[in-house]
Amino acid sequence: MILIVFFLLHWYFSLFCQSFFLHRYAAHQMFFMSKYWEKFFYIFTWITQGSSYLSPRAYAILHRMHHAYSDTPKDPHSPHHTENLFTMMWKTKNIYNDYFSFRLKPEERFSKDVPDWNKFDLFADSMIARVGWALLYILIYVLSISVFELAGTHWWMYFLLPIHLMMGPVHGAIVNWSGHKYGYANFDNNDKSKNSLLLDVLMLGELFQNNHHKLPNRPNFAVKWYEFDPTYPIVKLLHASGIIKLRAA
C-alpha cells in the first residue's frame, strides 16, 4: 500500500527532525554540530516537514518559553489554559508567527544561541514553497488513487492529505496536549506534565514530557526501565559517527 508507506515515512521522518533537530538541538542544545551539519539538518527538516515547515529559531524560542512557564497562563501551548485542542493550536500559531516575523522580541534567555538561518527560513516559509509541497502531496494521491488506481489504494485515503499538509503542527499538538493531560508522572515538576507511555510509539520519545521537564537537558527522555526513547539510540549513533557531539560525553 504505497500511500500508507508514504504517510508513515512522512510521519516519522518529520517527527524525527522535530525531536532531534528542533527540540533537542535548537531548543535545548543537548549536543554540538558543525555549521555544515546544521545547514544540512535545516534542509532535511524542510524536506521532511514540507508544507508545515517550522523555523528552528521560532520553535526554540517558544519551547524555551514553554519550559519557563509550563502550564501557567504565559505558557504558549498549555492545554490547561485553552478551551480545546484547536484553540491551543491557533494560539500557538499566532505566537509562533509573531516571533518568526520579529514582531515580538523574546527575552535573551529564550533566544540566546538559537540557530538562525533567516534567508532559508524566509524561503522555506514562503507561500510558494508551502503550496509547492501541498501540490506535490495532492499529485501523489491523485495519481495513486484516481489515475493509476494502484492496488491497495482507496478513496478514503484522501482524508490523510490534511495531516500531510499540517504534519509539524499535528505533531506539536499531540505532544503538547497529551503530554500535559494523559498518563503518569515520575516527578513532581510543579506543572501538569505527564508521560503518555501508550501513545509514545507514535511520537519517538516526545511524550515522556514529565521526565523531560524534570531533566530538560538529558538527551534520553526515558528514565524508568520500561520506558524507551526511540530517538536516543539515533542520537548516540550520530555522536559515534562524529556528526554531532553530545554535551555530556
TrEMBL record:
Membrane topology: Multi-pass membrane protein
Keywords tagged on the record: Fatty acid biosynthesis, Fatty acid metabolism, Iron, Lipid biosynthesis, Lipid metabolism, Membrane, Oxidoreductase, Transmembrane, Transmembrane helix
Keyword Metal-binding: no
EC number, as in UniProt: 1.14.19.-
Enzyme category, top tier: oxidoreductase
Domain Fatty acid desaturase intervals: 6-236
UniProt-annotated location(s): Membrane
GO function terms (MF aspect): oxidoreductase activity
Entry-linked Pfam families: FA_desaturase
Record-annotated membrane-spanning stretches: 41-60, 127-148, 154-175
Family that this chain belongs to: Belongs to the fatty acid desaturase type 2 family.
Protein name: Acyl-CoA desaturase
Species in which this protein is naturally found: Belliella marina
